[in-house]
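hey so i finally got around to running the thing on that chain from the lab meeting. sorry it took forever, my laptop kept dying and i had to restart like 3 times. anyway pasting the input first so we r on the same page abt which one it is
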Amino acid sequence: MQKQAYLAFNPARRQLLTSAAMLPLAMSATTILAAGDNAAPTHKHTAQTANLALISSALDCVKTGELCADHCIEQLKTGDTALAECLDRVNELVTACQALARLGSQQSRHVVAFAAVTAQVCRDCEKECLRHAEHHQQCADCAKSCAECIRECDKLVA
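ok and heres what got predicted. didnt touch it at all, straight out
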C-alpha cells in the first residue's frame, strides 16, 4: 500500500522539483528581458540579450522533456518497456538543457562549447523520440523542441 501511495505522489513531486529547478532560469530570463526595456541610456544590456533564443529553446526542451519523461515513466509502470531508451535520452536532455540555459543566461565563456555538446544530446534525444512520435504525442513534442534547440545551438557554434 505504501508503494501505491508513493507512486500516486510521484508525479506531483516531479512537478514540484521541475518547477523549483526552472524558477531561477525563468527569473534570469525575465530579468534579461526586462533589462532591455528599462535600461538607462548609458547602461546597455545588449550582450545579455544575445542568448535569448538559445535560452528559450533550451527551457522549452526542459519543459517538453519533463512531460515526455513522465509519460515514459507511466508506460514503464504498466510493464511496457518500449520507452525505456527514450527515458534515458530525455533525462540526459533535461540535464544538458538546464545547464545550457544557465550558462547562456550568465554569458559564460563556456556556452559555445557547451552548446556543441548539448546539440549532440538533443540529436540523440530527437532521434529516439522520433521513433515513438507516431504513437506518443509527448515524444513528438519533445522531438520538435529538440530540433529547435539544435538550430539555436548550431547558430551559436557556427
